[in-house]
Amino acid sequence: MKNTILGVLLFFAVIVGANAVYVVKETERAVVLRFGDMIRVDVPPGIHFKLPYVHTVRKFDARILTVDATPQRYLTLEQKALLVDSYAMWRIVDVQRYYTATSGEESRTNALLAQRVNDGLRNKFGERDLQEVVSGQRDLLMNEITEELNAYTANEYGIEVIDVRVKRIDLPDDVRGSVYERMTSERNREAQQLRSRGNELAIGIEADADRQEAVLLVEAYRDSERIRGEGDARAAAIYAQAFGQDPEFYSFTRSLNSYRESFSSKGDILLLEPDSDYFRYMRSGAGVMAE
Questions:
Q1: pTM tops 0.70, yes or no
Q2: Under CATH, which architecture does the 65-170 domain have?
């Protein structure tokens, strides 16, 4: 009987001791409550003790968490509808404020933050046109939303917004077709303008090339005629100088060349007087050579 009582007492002691010890991990933030009232805030990591059934420990994830906002439809400055899918990254910085504002419920925090992100995006998209929100000023827009959210959430929820990002921007189905058609028309118009400019430049380049070609041909012809004329003049001077030394030998050489060309073909017929001057060197060739 005594052993049974000791065993029961030991069992309850173990249960009480187990409930009196709690561990806070490095990745957690914790508060201690006494009958619902917060008596210890931001308990540091390690092993701690509490009064069983009197004190309650609430632990929260201290790591960076992500909340995916539900895709929302926003209007840009020119009243163009966009379907935007975004997300935000956050973490706890003030455990007491976080517990007071959200009762330590992560799902409730995500819902509140998602609503704030959607409101911020709606305001920022309404101040910018389609080009700016899609590519031109997206980074600036995200930084502005992050700063504005931090100014609010740090005081109201005890959390810090690390970053806000847009995952995807789509056109709603009811306006996608008309927008794509307008974009296609604009791209075709730009392509036609570029094509016209290219044709204009090509015509100019071809005209300049033709002009340069004509100038080069004229200059080349002029130089060739000048060189040919100089060559003919020098050749004539050389011939004149050479043949001037012996006119009779020059006449004899010219006659031999004429005979060779005249009698090169058997079909050639010459009708000349026998005593024609053309055959002078054929009749008196021996005498001429002797001279």
A1: no
A2: 2-Layer Sandwich (3.30)
